[in-house]
Amino acid sequence: MGSSTVGGERTSAGVRDAAARGWDDSLYEDTAGRVPGARTAPDDEQDRGSERDSAAEGSGLDRHRTPARRAKRGKRCILRGITLTLSVIVLGTAGAGYLYYEHLNSNIRKGERSSANSDVKKSAPNAAGQTPLNVLLIGSDSRNSSENLELGGSRKSVGAPPLADVQMLLHVSADRKNASVVSIPRDTKVDIPACTDPKTGDKYVATRDLINTTLGRGGPGCTLATWQELTGVYIDHWMMVDFAGVVDMADAIGGAEICVNHNVYDGPKPGVPGGSGLRLTKGSHEIQGVKALQWLRTRHAFESDFGRSEAQHMYMNSVIRKLKDQNAFTDGGRLMDLAETATKALQVSEEIGTVRKLFDLGMTLKDVPTDRIAMLTMPRIPDPANPKNHVLPAPGEAERLWEMLRDDVPVDGKAPTSKPKTPAAPKDPAADPADIGVMVRNGTGADGPATYERAAAVTGVLAQKGFTGAQVDSTPDPQKRTQVLFPSADLEGDAHAVAKALGVPTSAVKRSTDVSGVTLVVGSDWRAGNTFPKSEPASGPPKNTETVMGDDRDACMDIYAPYRF
Question: What is the CA radius of gyration of the chain?
Fold first, then answer.
């Protein structure tokens, strides 16, 4: 797998012939008889990486892509995220005899949780002592196995660094009564931390690039580390699936009910060749096999990649409801089939690399009611440097979403299902403000040019509030989030007093051995103003996104007018 951290590709003989699955091998070939996506020219490199399907409508990229190429990508990439979420639920129902347990254990492939250093901490427990669960679900486009090549890869791409084309964060609340799935588009430009591949020892310097490149820069552990740095959310585990695993799980799970508000045909149009071939009449349909694949890869008829993401979430929710409605979690025969498939399909971080651990993980999800499952895509804006192909997290709204996840606040707009724990008062009482020494650093340059003399401005604010011992510290320390650091327990009360005076949340007060006294690092989340900016009240899903609820059986996709008939 190139520089992937996970040892070995799927090489067992468990994948049946692609044709037997309802796959048309001809869809993987372009008009020249070669497999699309082969790394034979810079254009192909671009197609496999940053500049492919996320181009905006009319960007011109689709006019250079054959229907075959679009069909291939739909079958490979889109189902991966769906497979991952459903696999977690399926594994939560597995409980078999010892021999079968050991057999399932031998199926599982494992890798290191994180490939980078991070100071992101786990969320504080709620009043009942429970903590949230965060699992990163990754879909890899690796072709480094005979099975993946059989399913449409190019031999010329064997050994190339894999891309994380599907990335979703599964967040389950501390009390396991609500959950959310948040997708980040693969062509999102982000800061990627320095990563080390634990398998090869290769080191990668920090950079700014598309988030899907992280998988080739230290494996899934680097993808996890990038998500943590972007969101500030501690991620407990990762799970990853490849092409062959997607196909196996798609076969094992079966169909699902979807709906369209208009007759739709996602076929070629003048100047816009390709399309998934999806043809449906207005109304609800039970889809599986090729029709399900067409639904999951449709982009033009749903107007954009983000519409396609909404359709994928709709399909995932439908399958979850189907499993619950059919009591699949208690049907022993079906459970064994699903567990057998899921353990072969998945690669996981090593701390959950046994059936027992995966069973425990799945049990945290089994009882989440569908009316408290929300699926949404990260709020985003076009990247000014490449607005047709790349996106950035939307200022304000994306951070509000991350804050909701960090604080375990439901994103569905409904009331929290558990009470947060009241922060304990510092054991060490704060000194008088005039007696507290505070060093202030300008860390606003984390995601752009630093705000000029920001440390001096905040130092002046502290002096006005009585902290006359505040001083500017010129140490470079770019940070996305403002923090108040203290080195020892005897200064904890002083650090909290500084935070309270400026309106900085208590969650930003942290003990650190990197400072010698109370130190305020003004991050890029506080570039102006005398008081730390408060987020918009967390009352429902952020703006500039799409949200699909798990219990919405009436959800129906609108169709872009040119693709109606």
Answer: 25
